[in-house]
Amino acid sequence: MSNPIIHISFAKIFEFEGWLFEYDRNKPFGPWPLKKDFEPRKRAGMKFYNTFGRFLEMTIEEQQEFRVA
Predict the structure, then answer these.
(1) pTM of the predicted model, to two decimals?
(2) What is the DSSP annotation of 2-63?
(3) Average pLDDT of 14-42?
(4) How many CB atoms lie within 10 A of CB 34?
């Protein structure tokens, strides 16, 4: 019997220009907008991705200033 592998991951949550979203540049998925209770929204539209594009234009240090969790 093999030993199980456990992977623990913590969400990196940012708030930028009124959007709350989960994003980790080291993960192959995301970003995704969140509700105020940190639950994922049903949809992510062009308004969100346009805002996220402006977020990506910042340096990593500037982005960290908007991290809330």
Answers:
(1) 0.83
(2) PPPP-------EEEETTEEEE--TTSSS--EEB-TTSPBPS---HHHHHHHHHHHTS-HHHH
(3) 94
(4) 19
